Amino acid sequence: MPTRGHLLTEQANPASQNLDQLTPLEFVDLFNQEDQKVLAAIANAREVIAQAITETADRLRQGGRLFYIGAGTSGRLGVLDAAECPPTFCSPPEMVQGILAGGRAALVKSSEALEDRARDGAAAMIEHQIGPLDVVVGITAGGTTPYVQGAITAANEQRALTIFLACVPSQQVPTNAQIDIRLLVGPELLTGSTRLKAGTVTKIALNMISTGVMVQLGKVYGNRMVDVSVTNSKLFDRAVRIIADLTGLEREPAADLLSKSGQRVKLALLMHWTNLAPEAAQALLDHHHGQLRTALNAFQVTPS
């Protein structure tokens, strides 16, 4: 296997050359200092991240799916982001999916050797029946992971939208993905341990992509998650508070409105502001593709 020591993610960080001699407080301060580079890396990639949000939302609006694929830490972060979409946005579980080299077992037990098989990444694309409306985000801190490279190539062949997310410059590791996101946080404090800054910046980028896409899909009104899935007492309380805050209702009538809507916050809000029955309000929402603000504008209602 060719050496990867030239990669930005594998280089030694001069700032931490005496890492083993630092006091815990000095270690924390240095760690914090290095993490400032994470936000700078996100800012430098702002335009291409926005492009990824726009193009992904367009595909999902037409019935497509979003797949994150990776190995090790990168893959686990993708699985985590995908798993959080249904409870946060009430999105169907199949809409955003995480694919990890080694499968479910690799979530808790290292299976890093599996990342070296490009054919497995390609096979995952076939298994999930990737098509032209789908989006595949290949996540690899060092950019060279064969599992991810194989998936991107196979997804391109199926005319899916492909996005490459890496923490090395494109000059070091080129990609044939259609959208190329480079998050350059520099060498890690612990040389080569890309679960650190590279992992942090990846988590932020995935947060931005999935949240931005869901905003575009009408899952948010203002800054409230109006498609939240009411599946436990905490989320029930949050749903009631959202309704109460946006409508000015007291808690009891807000909870009653939530109940009449079938535990659907967005529908409850539309019912309140239009005085429509649940069935009519749902039909109005469906006509406007789940976009609450668009439905309200069409009904010529301005919430107070």
CATH superfamily of the largest domain: Glucose-6-phosphate isomerase like protein, domain 1
Tell me the strand order in the biggest sheet.
2-1-3-4-5
Gross CATH architecture of the largest domain: 3-Layer(aba) Sandwich
Determine the fraction of residues in helical runs and give it as a percent range: 40-55%
pLDDT < 50 stretches: none
Question: What can you see in these coordinates?
Answer:
With 304 residues, the chain is an alpha/beta fold. It folds into two domains: 8-216, Glucose-6-phosphate isomerase like protein, domain 1 (Rossmann fold, 3-Layer(aba) Sandwich); 233-298, Orthogonal Bundle (Helicase, Ruva Protein, domain 3). Helices cover 49% and strands 8% of the residues. The protein contains eleven helices and five strands, in the order ααβαβαβαββαααααα. It has helices at 24-44, 46-61, 72-89, 118-127, 146-157, 197-216, 233-247, 251-260, 265-274, 278-287, 292-298; strands at 66-70, 96-100, 135-139, 161-166, 179-182. A five-stranded parallel beta sheet has the order 2-1-3-4-5, with helices on both faces. Helix 1 (24-44) crosses helix 6 (197-216), helix 7 (233-247) runs parallel beside helix 9 (265-274) and helix 8 (251-260) crosses helix 9 (265-274). The longest helix is centred in the first third of the chain and has 21 residues, at 24-44. It is globular. It starts with 23 loop residues before the first helix and ends in a 6-residue tail after the last helix. The model has no long low-confidence stretch (mean pLDDT 94).
